[in-house]
Amino acid sequence: MKLPEQFEIRMKDMLGQEFLDYQNSLDMPSFHGLRVNTSKISVEEFLRISPFSLKPVPWCSNGFYYDDTVQPAKHPYYYAGLYYIQEPSAMTPASVLPIEEGDRVLDICAAPGGKSTELAAKLKGTGLLVSNDISNSRAKALLKNLELFGVSNMLVMSEPSNTLAEHFPGFFDKILIDAPCSGEGMFRKANSMVKAWESNGVDLFVNLQQSILREMVKCLRPGGTMVYSTCTFSPEENEQAMDYLLELDEQLELVELPMYEGFDTGHPEWSRTGNPDVQKCRRLWPHRIQGEGHFVAMLKKKDINNQYGVNWHHLTKVKLPDGVLEFLNDIHWDWDMSRMELQKDRLYYLPETMPDVKGLRLLRNGLFLGECKKNRFEPSQSLAMALRMEEYKNAISLPVSDERVIRYLKGETIELEGANGMVLFCVDGYPLGWGKLTNGTLKNKYLAGWRWL
Length: 453
What we know:
The structure is a single chain. The chain is an alpha+beta fold. Helices cover 27% and strands 25% of the residues. It is built from 14 helices and 23 strands. The chain is globular and about 75 Å long. The protein starts with a helix and ends in a 9-residue tail after the last strand. The mean pLDDT is 96.
């Protein structure tokens, strides 16, 4: 691979005798990974049913390498939300962030959803996940992946960081910043990143990263934890970003991250201040590990008695049509009816911790349950993905080997035995979507935009 001259000079200076190993690694194949959705299936159970040959990713307990001869995105288990396809090094930031049940979590640069889906799995349906991306089109892809994973306790937004800081001062227990960067660590995976680097360089991203950090430090509560990551090598975007962040708030301190075979520390000599604590950060070099280039840092804010004010959403009980209540009674959930919200004919189930989001560009607030239509309720695809098979009264499962599974995913009408009415259609016990069964014929309700092509 032909590298930009300025980049090559800097990397030779950074890597010394290792530069040749790094250069050679760019001509090697990239590594492919998937991450098991532990909110739907345990790692052990997935390995038992997995149709792929898998090898563990050392730094992510639910991450695995797969061979590039297979296509995991063309398998019914992918459509059931049992795993997310993710580059192995990119699994690190969400893996190290210590999420606890009930946490309020922000993923600020969240699209397309790889990190948000893992954060959601760690929350186990509790607390609140705010997934934000400033690009509205990218946020739509983010929403789909969160819905595919069955996430119910989410707010999906498309706002700049300063707007979030105004609405959520001191609100979040955990924040993940996978910052926009110059992408040097992705040169092997995407050659287009080389041309982008030549056009944009590093300074553009340093300014953008600093603007995000200035706002995000305001959102972190005392005692909270923040993870910052990039997929680049430049010290200006990594160690020196930590210099900048620590200067923003003297209550922040770097936390030691796990050290796996092949990982490197941050380098004090690349810090603007020579800060020895940057050794607590981790650098991932593609010539040392089976993955692309990455930088990860974790910081904790000292637990002092500062008080912050956040406006809360005022829940009001809504009167639901009888058809809606009848359908909800067929779902074995302990519904909190005060969390129901009707927006015109669309019904949502709000997170248990619901801030005021008035005025924000919101793609989703909580779980979209479905649409109230004349004399009936049309359940949503997102509700199907949030359910377990045993939680719905009329669920039918077919083995993955049954050709009707693919036909269902293509949106076809299929023949099926079972009780008449709305059916939760599953593969090997994992929901795929809805269908209306009438005398052995299933009218397909699978979401058109998600269909198998």
